[in-house]
Design brief:
The strands form 2 sheets. Strands 3-2-4-1-5-6-7 form a 7-stranded parallel beta sheet, sandwiched between helices. It contains 8 helices and 12 strands. Strand 10 and strand 11 form a beta hairpin. By secondary structure, the chain is of the alpha/beta class. The longest helix is centred in the first third of the chain and has 14 residues. It catalyses: GTP + H2O = GDP + phosphate + H(+). Keywords: Chaperone, Hydrolase, Nucleotide-binding.
Length: 300
């Protein structure tokens, strides 16, 4: 039996940081991980965080859900047939309902080969405190991801005061009294907490509050920068003009005077720039509501 963990959490909460750290811990115990990574966009940026020697299946455009169950089954079946691994981690897109994603993993094809340990949800603590600013549909999904967790990480606690940290834990525990809650920064969680999770039973679908992607107008947009010329300051000025319904951006942005496009990440008003030592394609994925209408710097 191979253990399976489903990593859930809203866009930009810190799932990929948790994934890379859990992989490190598994390797230290001489366990071989495999990963199925689901992304909402058409470009697999998060998968670049997974080392080359780890079996990886990518599913783009948010298809680990009920409508994509057949694709999920095919990817798992392929891993079971072709790859040598001990633990399977499935990282869903931030726009996926965790229970629907978990339900897609249950299949008579491999029921005797997989031991589904549970849902690990990463919750952005600051976003929890500001959840009333989200649109009703998006807030519903954010809350559902937290409500169905078996292990809940209150992440980014370094951005909060001690009083705010206590408030977050108290409110999360009241909202999901069944989950073990751990305060984290950078999504770091001891592997033993995952290993302590009990196997989950088949989920009753009637318990799901539906929040499908379509009803949120949530989507992604892939932007390619060609022959553009702007400074980091000009780009950040543009970022500040974006509506609150842009939740996440990630990609490689060409900056004046810098040799290679820089790795750029954005989540809920906070930006991060990192130098890139390999020339990556100058492309940016924007995730949010009605992103097709945005005016993008250097493009329109």
């Amino acid at each position: 039996m191979k253990d399976v963990y489903l990593f859930s959490g809203f866009l930009g909460s810190g799932k990929t940081s948790m994934l890379t750290d859990v992989i490190r811990q598994l390797k230290e115990k001489n366990l071989k991980p495999a990963v199925i990574m689901n992304e909402l966009g058409k470009l697999p940026f998060d998968s670049q965080a997974v080392e080359k020697d780890i079996p990886l299946k990518e599913m783009l455009e948010g298809c680990i859900c009920c409508s994509g169950a057949e694709k999920t089954e095919a990817q798992i079946q392929s891993l079971l047939l072709d790859s040598d691994f001990d633990v399977l981690i499935i990282e869903t897109t931030g726009a996926a309902h965790p229970v629907e994603a978990l339900d897609a993993v249950y299949s008579p094809l491999f029921a005797e080969k997989l031991n589904v340990r549970g849902i690990v949800t990463v919750a952005d603590s600051k976003l929890w405190l500001n959840r009333e600013t989200l649109t009703p549909q998006v807030r519903s999904l954010f809350m559902e991801q937290i409500r169905h967790a078996h292990l809940l990480l209150a992440n980014k606690t370094d951005l909060l005061t001690e009083a705010e940290q206590a408030q977050v834990v108290y409110e999360l525990q009241g909202f999901n009294p069944h989950a073990f809650i751990m305060q984290t920064t950078n999504g770091r969680v001891p592997l033993r907490l995952l290993e302590d999770l009990k196997a989950t039973a088949q989920v009753d679908k009637e318990d799901i509050v539906k929040a499908p992607i379509a009803s949120m107008h949530l989507g992604s947009r892939l932007v390619e920068f060609k022959d553009v010329n702007f400074t980091q300051e000009q780009f950040e000025d543009w970022v500040r003009t974006l509506p609150e319904t842009v939740y996440r951006m990630k990609g490689y942005v060409p900056i004046e005077g810098v040799k290679n496009p820089m790795l750029f990440q954005y989540a809920y008003g906070m930006v991060q720039w990192l130098p890139e030592y390999v020339k990556m394609p100058a492309k940016l994925v924007i995730i949010g509501e009605d992103v097709s209408r945005l005016n993008v710097i250097g493009i329109e």
